[in-house]
Design goal:
Elements: E1 10-12, E2 15-23, E3 27-34, E4 45-50, H1 52-55, H2 58-71, E5 82-88, E6 91-97, E7 101-103, H3 104-116, H4 128-146, E8 168-171, E9 176-178, H5 184-193, H6 206-209, H7 216-232, H8 242-251, H9 266-275, H10 287-301, H11 306-315, H12 317-332, H13 357-360, H14 395-401
Antiparallel strand pairs: 1-2, 2-3, 3-4, 4-6, 5-6, 7-8, 8-9
The structure holds adenosine-5'-triphosphate and magnesium ion.
Magnesium ion (MG) binds near residues 24 and 180.
């Protein structure tokens, strides 16, 4: 399976792959677009293709498809839109809207690198109002999923269980989107069975580490960890060994974020500590209560969500310019006709507001990509894996917010 490139679309069922975005533990994520495109509203998609290793497990495949169908019901501004679940030549995938931006792991890592840089480089942390806003949007997305009902209004009891910085995507337009919702349960279950759950413990709740029954409040705790880390630019739970780390999560002894960041007010400390209460009864009982408290604080900051857009474009200046260029190329390229990348790149600094990925990527009619996937159902030999384009954790600061991924 070839990954393609923005100027070299490679067919994959009813999609063209336009380059590898990243390779995670369980899947590869590609930039893509439908082969049959609606001229009026072209947009890019992200296709997450599961590793063949997972597809050997019939139970995983069942669960994956069931959960991905649930994910398609999650229509909320804070959750990435799942467009389709399918398979092509035995490779199981989900197609989602493409979010031009970076995940929160990358944002935290870049902030730390800027902190360490000599001479100092800005921005070197996520400003408090931005962090509070991101936390509120995460909680909003969680609340929506927790309260989703079926056609008869019965609660579906959706719990994410995998709320972590790598599953929060910040777009260059300032949107906050939860990723991997719906498929988290299948991924968590089977990755723990095949022993690659490692790296996930630092975002689990004490009850999750203990293997106890979980409800929405486990996601509240994980959102609390993310909030804490955004405010301190430090990992909250760390351990030299897996056992030591799990002990720390079990105890859930949390220093107030103001210990690390004097801009954090006592009010914000209290919110974070309540989200991170070890005992579920002392915690926020719903994600919406957490969202409401955070939104109340934001009102006092006079924060404009546009500031998050500026922050992202500033923190990833070169990557943003590349994103604009790649998006334009990816939307217009044709297979077999590699085109040269435009020399007339529009830089935001030079043109005021500049062109944004969503200027180029308006919403598309979902009917365009909702036809059933073709596929043989058989498992092809594992594809030759292309090298990831994404920046990978390097050195001390990288390893602090990076995750070890099995190769
Ligand atoms: N819809 C999307 N649009 C743009 N990028 C995406 C999209 N979905 C995922 N990504 C990016 O692809 C990368 C890999 O995601 P993936 O979920 O495979 O790995 P991960 O979250 O790092 O680890 P895990 O396997 O634990 O989920 C991440 O940087 C993620 O932000
Ligand atoms: Mg993920």
């Amino acid at each position: 399976m070839s990954s393609g490139a923005p100027n070299d679309p490679v067919p994959f069922g009813k999609y063209y792959l336009l380059g590898l975005i990243a390779r995670g533990g369980m899947a590869e994520v590609y930039r893509a677009r439908p082969v049959v495109r609606s001229e009026a509203k072209p947009r890019l998609l992200a296709i997450k293709v599961m590793r063949p290793q997972l597809a050997r497990e019939a139970r995983f495949v069942d669960m994956f498809h069931r959960e991905a169908k649930l994910a398609m019901m999650l229509k909320n501004r804070c959750i990435v839109e799942t467009v389709e679940v399918g398979q092509h030549e035995g490779r199981h995938y989900i197609a989602m809207e493409y979010i031009g931006g970076r995940d929160l792991t990358q944002v935290l890592r870049r902030s730390q690198e800027n902190q360490q840089h000599q001479p100092p480089r800005l921005p070197d942390r996520i400003p408090v109002p931005h962090a509070v806003f991101i936390g509120a949007r995460i909680a909003e997305g969680l609340h929506f999923a927790h309260n989703l009902g079926d056609a008869d209004g019965r609660l579906l009891n959706i719990v994410n269980r995998d709320v972590s910085p790598s599953n929060v995507r910040l777009s260059y337009d300032g949107d906050v989107k939860l990723l991997d919702f719906g498929i988290a349960q299948a991924l968590m279950k089977f990755t723990s069975e095949i022993g690659i759950l490692k790296g996930k413990f630092s975002y689990m709740s004490p009850e999750q580490i203990r293997g106890m029954p979980l409800d929405a409040r486990t996601d509240v705790f994980s959102a609390g960890i993310i909030l804490h880390e955004m405010l301190t630019t430090e990992k909250l739970f760390r351990g030299d060994t897996e056992f030591a780390l799990m002990e720390k999560v079990r105890k859930a002894e949390v220093p107030p974020p103001s210990t690390f960041n004097r801009r954090v007010t006592p009010e914000l400390d209290a919110i974070v500590l309540k989200a991170l209460a070890r005992d579920v009864m002392d915690r926020y009982q719903t994600a919406s209560q957490l969202a409401a408290d955070l939104d109340n604080l934001i009102a006092g900051y006079r924060f404009d969500p546009k500031e998050l857009r500026q922050f992202m474009r500033q923190l990833f200046r070169a990557e943003y310019a590349r994103e604009l260029e790649d998006t334009e190329t990816a939307l217009t390229s044709e297979p077999g006709l590699p085109i040269t990348i435009s020399q007339t790149m529009r830089m935001p600094a030079a043109t005021g507001r500049g062109m944004t990925p969503t200027d180029l990527v308006p919403l598309v009619d979902p009917a365009e990509v909702s036809a059933p996937a073709t596929g043989t159902g058989g498992e092809p030999p594992p594809p030759a894996l292309p090298a990831p384009l994404d920046d990978k954790p390097r050195g001390f600061w990288g390893s602090l917010f990076g995750k070890k991924k099995p190769r």
